[in-house]
Amino acid sequence: MFVDSPARRHTVSVLALDGMAPFELGSVVEVFGLPRPELDVPWYDLWVCSPERGPIRAVGGFTMTIEHDLDVFASADTVMVVGVPDVLEAPPSEVVTALQRARGRGARIVSICSGAFALAAAGLLDGREATTHWLYADLLRRRHPKIRVRADVLYVDGDDVLTGAGSAAGLDMCLHLVRKDHGARIANAVARRLVVPPHREGGQAQFVEAAVGAVPPADDAIGRAMTWALAHLAEPITVAVLAREAHLAPRTFIRHFNRQTGTSPLRWVLTQRIMAALPLLEDGAAPIEEIGAAVGFESPVTFRHHFARAMKTSPSAYRRTFRALAERR
């Protein structure tokens, strides 16, 4: 978990390159660049950077004027590359050097979409799992065989180096970073401002037949079942129960659920239980055992097991981290 020093705000730099598409860059600016005094936490300082200060062209026929260069880019706490203009060309050598400098001084490195090609060129993904837009996954795998490329996930959290899939998955990545830094309550508040689901797990498939959201419309069969499940997380939930709420046969329900969400019903329920536990751990003093039971885990052992698999830490350690963060504010 990447926690701010109490003396200053966490800095984020994002790379803007001539000829890039602006969507992912806009997502980063929306999440990290807007002041959010209503959240009452130290927010981020965002620096948009480029190899050279001045105007750059963006897809769509407009230009942007960039105020910061690669020295500023490499100096941030979190350094982000949200795309390269052409995946068939090598990233600029000065960008590769800046990424290596940033990693050498301990910065957290993040890519979104084709930005993974810049991290790969810098050698920062060797021996790691990583993702990119599913369209580019085979190319990344062929060009950089030392990387274990995942084409079926929204993002891969390697703690100090994180990679995200394409386009809208950039928002998932940004919200995931906010959740790591400030907790679920703050990330959920930002998601509400953005009018997007507060959490889609990193293992969510990149490409599904229907749009993926936190809960589909209430008049949709799958949406009815998901809405019911969110209101009854503390109760035993099986596929048969969910199928009954959707008025579908279990096999039909599983098929429609997978097609609509890209995951299985029980895996989705498990994720919702973990997400429901986060604010209880962050804000409350209830025993771990009570929190696990409150969100539907049969035993403290089961809760700790699934929590550790999802969050890469224990419930107790997660709580201690956010108590320490609160004390610094």
Description of the structure:
The protein is of the alpha/beta class. Helix content is 45%, strand content 13%. The chain has 14 helices and ten strands. The protein has helices at 23-33, 70-74, 93-104, 116-121, 137-143, 169-182, 184-194, 221-231, 239-246, 250-261, 265-283, 288-294, 300-311, 315-328, and strands at residues 11-15, 45-49, 54-58, 62-66, 78-81, 108-112, 129-131, 148-150, 155-157, 161-164. Strands 2-1-5-6-10-9 form a six-stranded mixed beta sheet, with helices on both faces. A two-stranded antiparallel sheet has the order 3-4. The chain has a two-stranded parallel sheet with strand order 7-8.
The major β-sheet equals: 6 strands, mixed
Element order: H for helix, E for strand: EHEEEHEHEHEHEEEHHHHHHHHH
Strand order of the largest sheet: 2-1-5-6-10-9
Number of E-type strands:
10
Beta-strand residue fraction: 5-15%
Low-confidence stretches: 1-7, 208-214
